[in-house]
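Input sequence (91 aa), recorded before submission:
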Amino acid sequence: MVKTSKNQQKINVSNNLQAVLEKEGIKQTEMSKESGVSGSTINKLANNRLIVTKTTQNRLIIAINKIRNKTYSLDDVFPSNRSTRPKDMRN
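Predicted structure, token format:
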């Protein structure tokens, strides 16, 4: 783990953000507007090219759940077990 200048832990994880956005029909621009996270950050994160803070992860989960009135958890989108799809999308 890497620490930011604000002493927040950053976590380098593979994530399911792109799969969830596609499943829910949410555009990255819509996520950016709702979450307050830049479109560039969301794009990099969706393509697993970014180290993210827990704060950013939480903002994105809240936005997804608000946009689609869902109850995705942090583990569904940012799984600690590094699975490649959310639980409800697995075979």
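Checked by second reader. The first strand starts at residue 2 and ends at 3.
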